[in-house]
Amino acid sequence: MPELHDELAIRIHDLVVGFGRQTVLDHLSLDVRRGEILGLVGASGGGKSVLMRTIIGLIRRRSGSIEVMGQPIGGTHDRSRAATWGILFQQGALFSSLTVRQNVQFPLRENLTLSQELMDEIAIAKLEMVGLRAQDGDKYPSELSGGMTKRVALARALALDPPILFLDEPTSGLDPIAAGDFDALIRTLQKTLGLTVFMVTHDLASLTTVCDRVAALADGMIVAIGPMRDLLQSEHPWVRAYFHGKRSQMLQSQMR
Ligand SMILES: Nc1ncnc2c1ncn2[C@@H]1O[C@H](COP(=O)(O)OP(=O)(O)O)[C@@H](O)[C@H]1O
Ligand SMILES: [Mg+2]
């Protein structure tokens, strides 16, 4: 059944993206529903980050259409959409010369004209929202643990209260406890703020416990999409290998 447009946060139709002679995304179509957490899996180098960057207008597409919250996305970066999405890039480093507070306030400074007092209040509210304390605002990125760094980056991504959050492998590099805490935080924020979350991840625990649906990217297309239990039943060779290969079987048996 075709989805109603206004129930969709992101609508991608027949998207082609490539570099030189390489085609990365090959007539890819994908719908992300409002308020859902969608997980995206795919081989390394398969185009997951390229897809995310194309949606937000950082990479030019060859053809196809993209709509975000009902508005078409142009071919290149569209600054007016800054409040539509928050982004945690894969190499999403904080600005090392700025304090945590200044990092969180960065999008506010770039996009709004607010008093310092109000910006300080907003920074505290955002830090508390992601489970940090007001006094963590004085720290510098080099003084933070991996889990705290991700939380600060998340607070910065949510500074402008965007309805959509993009996460590119947010739990990679975190220990399992920090990763589990981060997943729980994403779930809580999605519930309390009604966020739509588009999350690239290899983390089977995240896919199983946090994602409402999972999409698999292979050969430049979405070859399977649905709740995790449906993906586990998929007949597609790459999806089968991904979820039923030796390594993932071992992990899944350990998770039970
Ligand atoms: N800016 C770019 N210029 C040229 N090639 C790129 C660029 N960004 C990504 N690629 C290529 O596109 C392919 C997909 O990359 P990427 O989306 O980063 O993969 P992943 O699924 O691991 O996130 C890779 O072959 C990569 O080398
Ligand atoms: Mg990537």
Description:
With 256 residues, this protein is an alpha/beta fold. It has two domains: 37-63 and 166-256, Rossmann fold, CATH 3.40.50.300; 96-162, no CATH class. 37% of the residues lie in helices and 25% in strands. The strands form two sheets. It has a six-stranded mixed sheet with strand order 6-7-8-3-9-10, with helices on both faces. Strands 2-1-4-5 form a four-stranded antiparallel sheet, covered by helices on one side. The longest helix is centred in the last third of the chain and has 18 residues, at 176-193. The protein starts with 7 loop residues before the first strand and ends with a helix. The mean pLDDT is 91. It binds adenosine-5'-diphosphate and magnesium ion. The site of magnesium ion has 4 residues, from helix 1.
The CATH class of the largest domain turns out to be Alpha Beta
Q: Could you describe the largest sheet, including whether it forms a barrel?
A: 6 strands, mixed
The CATH architecture term of the largest domain is: 3-Layer(aba) Sandwich
Q: Which structural class should the secondary elements be placed in?
A: alpha/beta
Summarize the structure.
This protein has 256 residues and is of the alpha/beta class. Helix content is 37%, strand content 25%.
Q: Helices, strands, pairings?
A:
Layout (H helix, E strand, L loop, with lengths): L7 E12 L2 E12 L3 E6 L5 H8 L7 E6 L2 E2 L12 E4 L11 H12 L4 H14 L16 H12 L6 E5 L7 H18 L2 E5 L3 H6 L3 E6 L2 E6 L1 H6 L3 H8 L1 H10 L1
Parallel strand pairs: 3-8, 3-9, 6-7, 7-8
Antiparallel strand pairs: 1-2, 1-4, 4-5, 9-10
Helix pairs in contact: 2-3, 2-4, 3-4, 8-9
The protein binds adenosine-5'-diphosphate (ADP) and magnesium ion.
